[in-house]
Amino acid sequence: MADVKYAEKIFMDGEFIPWDECKIHVMSHVIHYGSSVFEGIRCYKGKDNSYVFRLKDHLKRLVNSAKIYRMELKYTQKDIERIILETIRENQLSDCYIRPIFFRGFGDFGVNPSKSPVHFAVATWNWGTYLGKDAMESGIDVCTSTWRRMAPNTLPSLAKAGGNYLNSGLIKMEADLNGYAEGIALDTNGHISEGSGENIFIVINNSLYTPPSHSSILPGITRHAVIVLARDKGYKVKQQIIPRETIYTADEAFFTGTAAEISVIRSVDRIPIGNGKRGPVTKDLQQDFFAILECKKTDPYGWMTPVY
Q1: Which domains, ranges and CATH numbers included, belong to the chain?
Q2: CA angle 138–283–264, rounded 5-degree value
Q3: 20-28: long-range contacts (C-beta < 8 A, 24 or more apart)?
Q4: Which of 66, 99, 145, 175 could form a disulfide with 180 if both were Cys (CB 3.0 to 4.6 A apart)?
Q5: Alpha-carbon gap, residue 70 to 65, rounded angstroms
């Protein structure tokens, strides 16, 4: 895989195992039914240390996702935090992507997961810009997907669960096959929801708009960070239903996410957004965001957890 460097070891159920030797049974419940909950977290290299971005907030969501899916965990949130930091140190990484995951193993053959054991793993790797090298400045071309997000009474969008990402895979594959970097899913009412793995913001007259939780989004940690940064800088931020056509007439648009960070959207369905390049509001927020992540600016929010 381009722009990726795997770590040497993965934490799995209490021990560190070499990357290529970390295996599960083919009849594990998670393989057949998608029964996992996970997080995507980033660690950044600072001047004097490495720091994990919003670790406690990510783990709070991880524990809540497990609760929604009735997974009984043997680890507390504090335990998970300690293990993640130990995994980074074990692999001697200075910056990396972090994937903690709880999943149902082999225990029974039926859909009901209650008799399948819950396993825990933490993997780390070096991962560059998720949506490509142009995503931060020049921007990416995006399409509206034919695949919609799930209705609120089908799958819980507030949980970051493995099975939910089958929908994301369809969105991403369709976009790639049609020559786009990413797709935007609509909710069941035809309003803008989110990308395959990112939240979305649009900018109109220097105000930011982003879909609300009831538009079948996963309320992202980076999304929340952008809302906080924007409001502290004096921008108005509104979480509201966004009709599909609104994005075509926006001044700016961008994705947010742990992998995507803050990625510029330059066009949607071949319609240029604004001037078809990064706008001033997006640039302003990117500068503050990365200044905190790279420890070039004081972290007033307590978002950065030191590793070493």
Answers
A1: 4-127 (3.30.470.10), 140-293 (3.20.10.10)
A2: 40
A3: 22/121, 22/123, 24/103, 24/105, 24/106, 24/119, 25/105, 25/106, 27/106, 27/109, 28/103, 28/104, 28/105, 28/106, 28/116
A4: 175
A5: 9
- With tokens 């990308």, the residue in question is 195
Q: How far apart are CA 111 and CA 276, in angstroms?
A: 47
Residues 214, 158: Cα–Cα separation, whole Å = 9
Residue positions counted in the chain = 308
Which whole number is the average pLDDT over 101-110? 95
Tell me the C-alpha distance between 180 and 137, whole Å: 17
266 closest CA partner among 255, 277, 251:
277
**Residue the block writes with tokens 């992540």:** 293
In the numeric block, which tokens belong to residue 288? 């503050």
Q: Give the H or E element holding residue 67.
A: helix 55-68
Please state the pTM of the whole predicted model. 0.95
**Does 160 participate in catalysis according to the annotation?**
yes
Burial category of 78 from C-beta neighbours within 10 Å (exposed 0-12, middle 13-18, buried 19 and up): exposed
For the stretch 87-102, pLDDT in tens is: 999 999 999 999 999 9
